[in-house]
Design a protein that fits this description.
alpha/beta; 4-stranded mixed sheet; single chain; 3 helices
């Protein structure tokens, strides 16, 4: 029986699956982390990210950017001890360049990545890094989160694939709309994202134990992660 093991911290959501009495070699580690405002230090003509440039109000230059990349890699590298996570979900990355630079920094781990530019006005996205020896994507889909006729939040990133023992798992990586304006008044936005996830799960017509939903749900009332 396979066990899914997650890494937990102030920035990470934990996923556990199945029996605790399994051998280490039957453990699949999955990590989710909001890396918070990882912007590529160049102005994007489409998105409102001017403050995250060298000339912007935050003076976000290349030194600060690469310092953040280095710190992210220093957290990722020791996760799992002698092993390494099969899948790492990331929230708040601006572009493929950011994801690519993280992979370059941890290139001894040989991660590949999945990323899609969403229509979020700041250009903030989610992404997935994966070890191709432990996980092989079969299908990838970005699910737009449209809040009204012109406004979008971060896409939900869906992928299904096979793990090292031949089983298929389904992943939904998400970053729900924030509580800007107040939790109660903004709840309808998170409800839309939640409905989209539920619709996707319902469309799969599979055992729910093969599905993992992870990311930043922007809700401090989430129950503590539990072994399932």
């Amino acid at each position: 029986m396979l066990k899914f093991k997650g890494f937990i911290g102030v920035f990470v959501f934990l996923c556990l699956w199945n029996s605790s009495s399994v051998k280490a070699e039957n453990t699949l580690q999955i990590v989710s982390w909001n890396v918070e405002n990882l912007f590529y230090p160049e102005k994007d003509s489409i998105n409102t990210d001017a403050e995250w440039t060298p000339e912007g109000t935050r003076h976000w230059g290349w030194n600060k950017y690469y310092n953040k990349i280095n710190k992210i890699s220093q957290v990722i590298t020791p996760i799992g001890g002698w092993g390494k996570p099969a899948i790492i979900g990331l929230c708040e990355v601006e572009s493929e360049e950011c994801v690519r630079d993280i992979c370059k920094k941890i290139n001894n781990y040989h991660y590949s990545y999945i990323h899609h530019d969403s229509k979020d006005k700041r250009g903030i996205d989610v992404a997935i890094l994966y070890d191709s020896l432990q996980y092989k994507p079969i299908h990838i889909q970005n699910i737009p989160v449209q809040l009204d006729s012109i406004t979008y939040s971060r896409d939900i990133l869906y992928t299904c694939g096979t793990i090292y023992n031949g089983d298929t798992i389904h992943l939904l990586m998400c970053h729900f709309p924030s509580q800007l304006g107040g939790k109660k008044d903004s709840q309808w936005k998170r409800n839309i994202a939640n409905q989209l996830i539920q619709q996707k799960i319902d469309s799969l017509h599979i055992d729910k134990d093969a599905i993992i939903v992870m990311g930043d749900f922007n809700d401090h009332d989430n129950p503590a992660p539990q072994q399932m």
